[in-house]
Amino acid sequence: MKRTTMTKTLKVLSAAVLGLCAIHFHATYAKDNSSTPDNGNLNQTVEFLRVAWILKPPYTRSRSIMNGSLNREADLRGLIQDALLRYIIVECGLLSSPSITYDVKSLEADSEFEMIELLRNNEVDFVAPIFETPDIRRYSEFHFLKLIDYPGTDFITSEDETHALNVVLDAVLKSWPLLAVTLIETAIAGIIVWALVRL
After folding, report:
1. DSSP H/E element including 134
2. Residue 193, SS3?
3. Beta carbons of 54 and 111 less than 8 angstroms apart
4. CA geometry: angle 135, 16, 27, nearest 5 deg
5. What is the pLDDT of residues 106-139, one digit of tens each?
6. Are 127 and 52 in contact (CB under 8 A)?
7. Which residues neighbour 76 within 8 Å (Cβ) at sequence distance 6 or greater?
């Protein structure tokens, strides 16, 4: 179950990164409604990527540093943050032509609305997570890439819990009260049927 969910998550993350690369490619090479590349920035290999995150441990955790403004510059770490930035740096940066090195600046946000305000003020390039559904678009002026259908579907497990035999035996041993109740109800139903047949 964990491996299947993780595989689906990685597929969705790679699709999100490819979408971000396509947007970056479109913004870089199709300026002024032209399909010819802009050769003026060919030697520039460093771009700044400003990212805002909501703190949701263990997905994102932080050691905050106040930088003198309303926003807090943060040294962010976490499961989603590490995976997304790894894909962005490799897929959009190193594999692009010419290769781009991203200097990532992370900002800590307290709420989804604060992150949207950072986007509206053009203070960040990328925010996560945003809980937006395709049916109800609250922020229609931005492009969103769907990462997962249901938040919280991935679980952290230890190596011992991932062996199939251990998982099955553990599930059976933990569900013995259900088995006992089922046997008792079956016995009662059998007695009732026997009594009805005897009448």
Report:
1. none
2. helix
3. yes
4. 100
5. 788 888 888 888 888 888 887 877 666 666 667 7
6. yes
7. 53, 60, 61, 62, 106, 108
**pTM score, whole prediction:** 0.44
CB 107 within 8 A of CB 54: no
* Amino acid found at 47: E
CA angle 68, 70, 73 (to 5 degrees): 65
Which structure tokens are listed for 73? 């510059």
Sign for the CA dihedral angle at 2, 111, 135, 91 comes to negative
Report helix, strand and coil shares of the chain as percent, to nearest 5. 50, 15, 35
Non-local CB neighbours of 80 within 8 Å, separated by 6+ positions = 59, 60, 128, 129
DSSP state of 122: T
pLDDT 10s digits, 132-188: 666 666 777 777 766 555 555 455 555 555 677 777 788 778 888 888 999 999 999
- Spatial strand order of the sheet with 61-66 comes to 61-66, 72-77, 101-109, 46-54, 126-128
